[in-house]
Amino acid sequence: MKKTKVITFLLLFLLTFAVNIISTYSHDKHVLPYYIKIGLFFDKTEKSELLLESNTTFEAGIFSEDKFISLFDLNVNKITLRKDEFYIDKGLNPEKYVVSANRSNNLPGVGGAYHIQIGQNFANYIEAHKFLNSIDVRDIQAYLCYEDEWRIYAGPYANEFEAKEEARNINLDCRYETGIIKPSGTRVQVVDEKNNIIFIYDSSCEVYFMSRKVGRDDPVVSVGGTSYRGGITAKRLPNSDMTIINKLPLEEYLYGVIPAEMPASWPMEALKAQAIAARGFAVTNFNKYKRFDFNLCTTTYSQVYKGYSGEHPNTNKAVDETRHTVITYDNKLIEPYYHSDSGGHTEDSENIWLNKLPYIRGVEDDFSSDTPHSTWS
Fold first, then answer.
1. DSSP state of 182
2. DSSP-assigned beta bridge partners for residue 26
């Protein structure tokens, strides 16, 4: 959260509970959201390609009614999510596959976004995978596709002419029913370390990739050197690259927030107060990034979130011991902004915003007087 002089709620209230009209209580768990979606990369930081690493192996699945439903195991610990787009193969260049605006077939090493569908649609993974294993066509790469239903695709191809030619060959060789799949603005490729397509999905279906639970270790997914609990998905929004989202339980999200907002070495009661404030902020700002189809970001524009990599046992304990606890006024959830330093005194809400709120009254804050950051301009 932004550490500004202007605040709506003094964390000191949480520490001392000095204002008795503000109450904390264990909120109905059915009212608080169970899961939260955090935007890791979006807008100016969006990705056209992203490597994910698992500390076990990956499984792909979807969320339904706050439950993760596994679609299938990928049986690999490294995958790359990539826009199903037109690419130029750059060989050993670190930016191996560069999105190409030129869709000409004349460029060497062009990979495309056309595919061939082989066979019919399937109701489940087992039927689709069985058919995939039965396909015997030389020199084609066939793979699974999930778009609410299961399909088998082959390709990819740089243009429609190339795809149609290959479809004719498949018909002649094996007499499989085929169809041409044209480029889509929502499709995402999942490729292995050898650049083989494992799987393609329509990102509007929100397929998430999670690490399988093995033994006692927490299953986490590494993205750009930072590990996260929960699942990761790439979503293609109109006129953009891929928005990368981490979906996980709200309480586990707080594990990665509290030590980023307050030193984990501070007293437990202070950490608990921070956990209560952060939980309330997350819930009251739940729709802040609705246009990007997630809830909060990882920076001070929301709350700083450093994922599993940033967790500490002390702050995890503070979250657990305040589970589902939020701050209310007149039985309504308040938005508990907090700050790092008030400068010695907070402010009334009407002097900052238009509304006068009875629970946002300026008070002296001796804890923020004569501190290294108590004076600024």
1. P
2. 325
